[in-house]
Input
Amino acid sequence: MHDEYIFEPVPQPGLEISGTDKLFPVHRIYCVGRNYADHAIEMGHDPNREPPFFFQKNPDSLVRQGQDFPYPPATSDVHFEMELVIAIGKDGIDIANDAALDHVFGYAVGLDMTRRDLQGEAKKLGRPWEVGKAFESSAPCSPIVPASVIGHPEKGAIWLNVNGVERQRGDLSQMIWKVPETVAYLSTLFSLKAGDLIFTGTPAGVGAIQRGDKMVGGVDGVSEIEVGVV
Output
């Protein structure tokens, strides 16, 4: 028990790191919106290159490898979005593009699960997206693979199958804002901390899941994730 608190604080969220028994302590989760042109088009937006925008999920929204995704309440339209995840390992603010990769500890793959009906209502009313994006268990994520092992991927297939049927496929080379640019731009808005995660956006093909579905996806050369919907 921590004597300085009136009750026991919630545990520190963490992700496994491939090749070690240590955990990566998660500070914040940032997500890039519409970072693939084909996904921007399917969502009804202009795919031209504009400054990136970001929203957040909560660190305790993580679902680690081997855990299930519980279908959330207050919705009937939950969508998958397969993404490359950047794990920040060094603090920084106003980071230059050519120094951005020095702040990256490694990479994972994750799912930006979305209550699309609630997000759509929020968009229409000009309200924040938290009810659609930041609910419990909305961020399934694989173990982190250190950049010292795999380098910094610039290309490679990103894909997702649901019940054995391919639903999403793109390539990291199609990202509008690349990893260094994303890290550098985000650091002009927030003080990045070791422990931050950045979900980098999803290719086209997002769609709904149902209880009993099994999602299997990954980024070639990085990692894979398997999540059941319960």
About this structure: The longest strand covers residues 104-111. The CA atoms of residues 156 and 171 lie 5 Å apart. Helices lie at 37-42, 116-125, 130-133, 147-150, 179-186.
